[in-house]
Amino acid sequence: MNETALYIDTPEALQQLCEQLRRHDWFTLDTEFLREKTYRARLCLLQVANPDVIACIDPLALPDLGPLLDLLYDEGITKVLHAAHQDLEIFFDMRGTVPGPIFDTQIAATLLGQGEQIGYGNLVKEVLGVELTKAHARADWCQRPLDADQLAYAADDVRYLRDVYHHQRTKLQELGREAWLAADFAEMTSAERYRNPPEEAWQRLKGANRLRGVQLAVLQTVAAWREEQAQLSDRPRRWILKDEVLLDLARHMPKDSRGMQRIRGLEEGTVKRSGQAILEAINAGQVMPKAQWPTIKQGPRLPAEQDALVDVLMALLRERCREQAISPAAVAGRRDLEKLIMGERDTPLLHGWRGEVAGESLLALLEGRLRLAVRDGRLQVETC
């Protein structure tokens, strides 16, 4: 029978829990949050577990999470998460840095043949044979009180993660791959992954590649204004200006409120509240020196006669990954192979575990030190 999870909603209980968590050099961690109505995720619940305890921590009831945050940022304790990015982003927003060290079971799964970007429920089912309920996947975690079923659902997100972690650690050690993940996990805790500089916001807009020249400069300045407003007001970007409106503002560059009224989807209330600020942002892009205009980074295209070579490299990549029971997508994509063909050598594909699994073989094939052949209907990799 599963042990009962503690519900932590007082400073005294939190302090006692943290003392229990410190008895081991790792604990599992998950969060429940909402961000539909905010720019930053609103933390609603934290779940933690180690061999001694499972707990759901209520940040809405606690005046301070300080003792727990101290544990999260303790370099001597590994935090075990699944698909950690959004969880870590919450703590980055709190402190401006990212907790570490971490162990991400989704990333580890790619090295163990357990799937590329596998979900937590599917991983638990594959490793432990346990079918988790999805009944509360869309729950409003800000509502109080939380009922027993919700808390049990939340606790399961860290309860079974303990056994998945032990299974993966054991398998990685047996395969000699435990050190392979160090660089990947270190990258996950780099603060640069979680910063959203307003001047770079335009790069996330789908459709920006259809704009040119000064239009991109205007897109950059208007998108930066929207990002700043969203951050200051803690409101979703789309509540400030929708993406398609941003693109049309950059495309047509209205000069006054009358011109803004012709932009489809630009609400009258937005024009009244922020029209002047938007026009100033548009003007800032228009007067930007041409040398400073942003550009869409598009790598050189391979000549047609080399395009088939990518398929040859992809065949070798798949074969090497099949031998190691690793997802090819975790090692390299088609664009990575194109860069290799074009002579780029400063690439993750040629370093670390990716180089060991496939990168060195791919380079050897390009340099004529390996060749592919078909023997008895199967692909063979041969030394030249």
Indicate the topology.
Elements: E1 6-8, H1 11-21, E2 26-34, E3 42-50, E4 53-57, H2 66-72, E5 78-81, H3 85-95, E6 102-104, H4 105-111, H5 120-128, H6 148-175, H7 182-188, H8 214-233, H9 237-240, H10 243-252, H11 257-260, H12 268-286, H13 304-324, H14 328-331, H15 334-341, H16 352-366, E7 370-375, E8 378-383
Parallel strand pairs: 1-4, 2-5, 5-6
Antiparallel strand pairs: 2-3, 3-4, 7-8
Helix pairs in contact: 4-6, 5-6, 8-10, 8-12, 13-15, 13-16
Oligomer: single chain
Helix tally equals 16
Query: What sequence of helices (H) and strands (E) makes up the elements?
Result: EHEEEHEHEHHHHHHHHHHHHHEE
Number of domains: 3
CATH superfamily of the largest domain: Ribonuclease H-like superfamily/Ribonuclease H
Biggest pleated sheet: 6 strands, mixed
Poorly predicted regions: none
CATH topology grouping of the largest domain: Nucleotidyltransferase, domain 5
How would you write the strand order of the largest sheet? 1-4-3-2-5-6
- Mean pLDDT equals 94
CATH architecture heading of the largest domain: 2-Layer Sandwich
Structural class: alpha/beta
Beta-strand percentage? 5-15%
Shape: flat
